[in-house]
Design a protein that fits this description.
This protein is 32% helix and 34% strand. With 157 residues, it is an alpha+beta fold. The termini are far apart. It holds the Pfam family ComGF.
Amino acid sequence: MRRTKTKFVAILYRNRGFTFANLLISFSIALLILFSFNVLLSYFLKTSVHSKDLHPYEWKVFLITLQKDLKNANQLQVRSNIITYEDIKGRNIMISQYGNVIRYQVEGQGHIVMLQRVKTSHFQQVQHGVSIEIESLKGSFYDAIIRDYKGLVKREE
């Protein structure tokens, strides 16, 4: 007697192919996977939503960037809400508050955002440096002093 090897699919479906019931089961499993993916995706997106307040890391990056720029600056002037200086290429740079952001402008043009979610800002000349005080939209206060080692800070007249 010759024994034929039957495949699993042939045994499962008895050589009749897919039935409507198989199609419904497969479709149901596919929908379950898709809906599960949607729920998981919405969960991960909710946890990665940006807060409405100024993030401390964003504040640190702002300070590092400003310190690096001021280190290479010439003719630094500090007024109540504006820092102006000349960069190493001879361009006039202005850092000021515009709406809810602190922006960086070159020769009075452009709009590079340095810090977001800012309610008020105040720049002040202190001995050997610049004092920066920021209030975020949520009411958190941030302050720092950036030292001027070149002695470029000019008193406000």
